[in-house]
Amino acid sequence: MELSLGSNLGTVLACILSFLAAAFSSAGGVGGGSLYVPILNIVTGLSLKTATSFSTFMVTGGTLSNVLYTLIILRGHEKGGQPLIDCDIAVVSQPCLLLGVSVGVICNVMFPEWLITALFAVFLASATFKTYGTGMKRWRAETAAARRILEGGSAVDHGTGEALLGQKEGDGRRRQWVDFVVLVAIWLCFFVIHLFIGGDGAKGVFNIKPCGVTYWLITVAQIPIAVAFTACIVHQKRKSHTQNSQESDQAISVKSKLEALPVYVFPIAALLTGVMSGLFGIGGGLLLNPVLLQIGVPPKTAASTTMFMVLFCASMSMVQFIILGVDGMVTAIAYAITCFVASIVGLVVIEGAIRRSGRLSLIVFMVAAILALSVVVIAFSGAARVWAEYTSGQYMGFKLPC
After folding, report:
1. For residues 30 and 82, what is the distance between their CA atoms, to the nearest angstrom?
2. Among 101, 105, 104, 81, which Cα is nearest to 93's?
3. How high is the pLDDT of residue 168?
4. What is the pLDDT of residues 108-158, one digit of tens each?
5. Measured CA distances, 370 to 32, 111, 134, 271, 384 (Å)
6. Which pick of 3, 61, 124, 225 has the fewest CB atoms within 10 Å?
7. How far is residue 157's CA from residue 47's CA, in Å, rounded to a whole number?
8. Residues 97, 284: contact at Cβ < 8 Å?
9. For the chain, what are the domain ranges?
10. Does the keyword Membrane apply (predicted)?
11. CB crowding 60-81: b at 16 or more within 10 Å, else e
């Protein structure tokens, strides 16, 4: 009876903490997996494998809520009816992001725990400081703009028109649907591959021998698939942007810096983000959002686009776990619903704060705070695992992928 009561209290506490983590993560535009796994593992006592599988449900619930809220609720607040999600960035980056995750998972198996923990701490600490610096620059720019307004001048409204698609509304919507169909096609291709070989803690459904010839042929096939998708998408985007030269001045001002970048910047950034995501065993949102901010994507667009991309990654693992019949499915769905609701709460709160203050830099500071919290939580849990390996005399060197 006492054990059952303790278990129920642990579940309730985990739901409360997950709700707070989901609201916090959604406001910053990251998936939250780096916080969900430690909560489930420490508070409820779930194994790391089960906590990881539950986390995919929670990330999917939170990102789905975020994307729906952005498309349905926030759409009307944007000038010209343009959505905040930049489908150009999403569709160009998604193939390489999924490929990078697969590469990172293999590296995770090969690298020793101490090296992964060290790399994780160094990278996220650096990302925290850079993101904080980006937030401070934007805060100072917003302060200067507000001062000019008070002095009778004018300032560019950074709170609207952040969508990077500058086409006429009808043409923009048509292209967004085409991009969505392409993203679904990419999702299906990589999902079928993962059904064969497994991934993200889930086994394949066809019992292919790990590291056999068939296994490696299917695994390596992800490279030409990702390259082919990316090349075709980039070619089509260049063609459509050349044909469509009529854009509003506001759209041009937002896009000019990004379009000046080489075309391969987003695919390479997505590939490296995916590798690090798979290597560190965390969701891509925590890494992708800071990368987009450093490239120069506006905060709202970076947050919304990141959540859109993470939805495709997380849902792939979730559907795979459903097909395989993960233990505790009802509990996993309950956690997912909790994160779904919490994500809306987080968005409503941050949107209200932005409207009242007129400062989009709040999103950047939120990302920096989540990065800092994730460094502490995961670095300490990783250090604990390293210490346990050391004291038990386990092998702590590099390993083969199989």
Report:
1. 22
2. 101
3. 46
4. 888 888 998 888 888 888 989 999 999 999 999 999 888 888 876 555 444
5. 9, 26, 15, 22, 21
6. 3
7. 48
8. yes
9. 2-391
10. yes
11. bbbbbbbbebbeeebeeebebe
293-309: burial string, b at 16+ Cβ within 10 Å, e else: beeebbbbbbbbbbbbb
Determine the Cα–Cα distance for residues 250 and 162; give it in Å rounded to an integer. 9
Q: Residue 378's closest CA among 51, 101, 57?
A: 51
d(CA 251, CA 272): 28
What is the Cα 113 distance to its own chain's centre? 23
Structure tokens at 287: 């890494």
Q: Which of 309, 277, 351 is nearest to 86 (CA)?
A: 309
The structure tokens 């343009």 sit at 82
In three-state secondary structure terms, 199 is strand
Alpha helices by DSSP H, 29-112: 33-43, 48-72, 87-110
Residue located via tokens 């490279």: 223
Q: How far apart are CA 6 and CA 218, in angstroms?
A: 45
Q: What residues are paired with 199 via a beta bridge?
A: 202
Alpha-carbon torsion angle 305, 311, 316, 322, nearest 10: 180
Q: Which amino acid is at 113?
A: E
Give the integer Cα–Cα distance in Å for 189 and 143.
47
DSSP state of 155: -
* Encoded tokens for 372: 């800092």
3-state secondary structure of 202: strand
Cβ atoms of 346 and 123 closer than 8 Å: no
pLDDT at 401: 77
Given the structure tokens 């065993």, which residue do they identify?
A: 281
Q: Could you tell me if 195 and 204 are in contact, meaning their C-beta atoms sit under 8 angstroms apart?
A: yes
Rg (CA), the chain: 21
Write out 333-367 in H/E/C secondary structure: HHHHHHHHHHHHHHHHHHHHHHHHHCCCHHHHHHH
Query: Two tokens at 374?
Result: 């994730």
Task: List, as one string, the DSSP characters of 279-298.
Answer: HHTS-THHHHHHHHHHHT--
- In order along the chain (402 residues), what is the average pLDDT of each group of 10 residues? 58 91 91 86 81 88 92 62 76 92 86 87 89 92 86 52 44 76 93 79 69 87 94 83 52 50 83 86 82 87 91 85 79 93 94 89 92 86 86 86 73
Q: Which long-range contacts (CB under 8 A, 24 or more apart) does 206-209 make?
A: none
pTM (predicted TM-score): 0.84
